[in-house]
Amino acid sequence: MSVPATPATQSAPEAASALDAEASFYEQAQADGVTFPPGDRYSDEPPLETDFHLQQMLLLIKCLEWFWRDRQDFYASGNLTIYYSPNQTKSKDFRGPDFFVVLGAEKRPRKSWVVWEEDGKYPNVIIELLSPSTASTDRSLKKQIYQDTFRTPDYFWFDPNTQEFQGFHLVDGAYQDLPPNAQGHLWSQQLQLWLGVVAGQLRFFTPDGELVPTPEESALAEQQRREAAEALLAQYRDRFGDLPPE
Q: Does 130 or 87 have the greater pLDDT score?
């Protein structure tokens, strides 16, 4: 399966410049007397609308953490408030993403994601799970915030009920639709993984198109391989006797 040559969101110098500008913003804001809320803030999110939404969020987190279990340089979470403005606590118009990944971050538990406590880092990837009450906001207001304020390179949405699935990549400051491959999967340039729908659920796929398994699926596959090897050995013994000594 060929991997699309997605245009890079930012060059290394541009990315460094953006981080410097972000840090300068917070330093200048503090110098101007802006008081940022304490960083040790709890998430303030409503529960996900259905069990389907909850299971989908947990599935994405579980699969990515298992696939990247040897990595310590990312943070994946869901339905968690992202605090990015000192004025945000005065408004309830915006809620946190249903699933997001921040690259280059320390892998540890958090009560919420507080941008000014995380070196100005915003999510690299966001996935929203659509529902009748959130779809309009996810397609408009949130998309605008993720594009213009967060500058999140990869944004996807998925409806567990209707199976609507769409993705965008940030190019020159604006989201461009991601074209699906022959299997209907969309490429995440940030994760270097495909996303696609299997059995009604959104899943990750490797660049070669292999399904990224859950820990349980990995354990089951290993058990099946072991049982197949044992069965093959039993067939050999039935025909030829025990294996010769080494």
A: 130
